[in-house]
Amino acid sequence: MSMYDMKKLAALVKELEDQLMVCMRCGMCQAVCPVFAETGREADVARGKLALLEGLIQEMFNDPKGVNERLSRCLLCGSCAANCPSGVKVLDIFLKARTILVGYMGLHPAKRIVFRGMLAHPELFNSLVKSASRIQSFFVKPADDLLGTSCARFLFPLAERHIKTFAPVSFLSRTRQPDTSAVSGLKVGFYVGCMIDKVYPDIGDAVLSALKHSGVGVLLPDEQGCCGIPALSSGDLKTFQKLVRYNLQRFSPGDFDYLVTACATCTSTIKKLWPMFADELSEVEKSKVRELAEKTMDISQFLVEKSGVVMPNSSYEGGKAILTYHDPCHLKKSLGIAAQPRALLCANSRYVFKEMSEPDRCCGCGGSFNLQYYGISASIGKRKRDSIVQTGCSTVATSCPACMLQISDMLSQAGERIQVKHAIEIYADSLE
Amino acid sequence: MAENKLVNKFGEILGKENVFQDDADRLAYSYDAAVLDSCLPSIVLRPTTSEALGQAVRLCNENALPTTVRGSGTNLSGGTIPKPGGVVIVTTALNEILEINEEDLYAVVQPGVITAKFAAAVEARGLFYPPDPGSQAVSTLGGNVAENAGGLRGLRYGVTRDYVMGIEFFDVNGELVKSGARTVKCVTGYNLAGLLVGSEGTLGVFNKIILKLIPMPAASKAMMAVFSEVSKASETVSAIIANRIVPVTLELMDNFTIRAVEDYAHVGLPVDAGALLLIEVDGHPAQVEDDAAKVEALCRQMGAMRVRVAQDAQERDKVWEARRAALSALSRIKPTTVLEDATVPRSKIPAMIRAIGEISRKFDLTIGTFGHAGDGNLHPTILTDRRNKEEWARVEQAIDAIFEEALALGGTLSGEHGIGTAKSKYMEKETSRATILYSRRIKAALDPKNILNPGKIIGE
Fold first, then answer.
1. In A, which residues are within 8 Å of B28 by CB distance?
2. pTM greater than the 0.90 cutoff
């Protein structure tokens, strides 16, 4: 018999029963799941995973480890939920299930070290990354100058990946609190997020210059913490809650009108997951979380809806380059934001905008999914790469640094000379 | 599966990566879209070549293993739920469109091709494959043929059966049997393809299917007619057909469904209407104009409160958005959605709708009705919670009552969802004892060890 107590596990998972019942097993999620499109395995699609959880409740089998493994074969892209006829809250269920299963079985030792030992302590984490950025050139060598990617000098542990290395100096350690005088009367908090802080600091600069141009005041606390999604998606609720608390201390909703981010994943996490997993916070913290969630906006949404997009270099009459856009799942499927980043792109008259086929198809990154299942992640990414290349563009823009990482890897490995930019960078360029 | 030798043999035939044995993987093939109990298979096979498929079937037969072939598992009558301890053969890796012939208007496909992808590939060549079951975005053509699937366009264009020109299938010994041809006419031998259509995986395992294609209609026009009462709407259906007009689609929604859709999708439906008819005509542009005008006039003549004819593609989408949202809207009301498809001659639609209303009151259940009024194929949809044992007992009685009523009106148990295990107990009532025995004799002759989807359609 297994080491697991079936009854106890069934009781824990039963918490999800009401939400699981909503699934009528119609299987329509098979049409849109990027992982299923590659593997064709029912356990990889939402209906299969939901059936596995149901199976644990019904005590049909006793393999929480097997279920957790299969739950982790998911990009959390939300394509299934966006396409679900009966409205199953798939991501809520999967994230809760991961925390339940990990709570029951314990966190994987390596993840325990990374999440609880490092990520949960932002000051320590920041200084570790700082040290890593100094010695990384020992491990990697440049791969593509245009994309700014690198590949491993030795095969382990990056394999064939073309990665973006840590920036020499992180955004937050090189940026001072900007002048907060606000001509527009609007003031925002800027939640930077790990990827922009440590890998793509230029995006941070672009955000600040766009806000400055619109006369928006900015509050930029230093030593910001991770939004918690890497921990939560691995079922580590403890680290997630610790990070939420840490960030609550740095961002007080009363200090600004809106909280902006340039990372689709951070935006969606703060807006949706912080309130959803706030059970163990105090009442005061809960109300702060709710307020922050309401005030949080993607930078393009803020500019388009709140401060107004400036049409700057309309006098430009030189040759125009083709620009396309990839919709991050956490922006379009999670928050319904798709028109706003495109509005920013069209403000730059140096480009002609051309839509790619299936612009909202997931790029296959999925955060830690990419680390665990690089093969599947890369084959999904190659479809995205092909859609990008077919437009004949010289630049592809998106709104999530995680998507940028994945798209850069795919383009770089194929030797495609296409720049990967954040939409706000394209917009900020036009302001100069 | 206890016998490692056999598992190894399957591995040799299919490649180890296509043999699923873990509990979690097997559990994911224990159900389909029917509201029925799951059954855990002992092994799941996913062949990637025809040869492997044939050899797998043969090995199953040699070892007397109950074998259920599964496409995307969207079956609504339990046809793809395996026997406990049986084998599931998944066809989704056999997904090549082998040929689209524009001169001779046919296509040859493997069984795992997705219906909507096939329809799109055909349309890209200016041709048309009409069958459009509700699950077409994910369903496989093999599954469609095995179930003789229908869809919204059945009224004018017929169902899957009408597009099957030939089938090449494996018998239980893994030998290839060929029936039908790439020609419009073919009387060579028994019509085995005809026997296999709708056989729900009980008589053979499809390897290739030859499908008929037709030219794409040049124009179409959609409209929505609003009625104060269901009876007026259904009389209008009869009037349209009686006037020798055969629309592509002639869909009906009752008041409960209208309100559910409006609550969910906010598409501007008249919530006080007794019923809606959603109608589309297609064909030559001149004929479409003519038919649309006649249908509109007929609707008004029959007492429609309002008729809205879609003026452009956007308005047309709007009309169909309401219909597409029907199942979603209903399924969100309660946890369990039981979608039935008892079908009656179309002139009996008013009587059937009345009967469903009475059944809903008698058993105190929430039932929304929508469906293909043009071909008499309604979808009374019972909204319930399966965990509520007392209510579930009433649901089962209501289902019995719906079938009784459909049969009493000269109708049939299933228009398009199949019999599977869900309706096999009613089979004799519609047909006869002799029919069941005749069918069982065919089954016993072709599948002596009774390995192909045992228990489906004709029981055991």
1. 41-43, 48, 51-52
2. yes
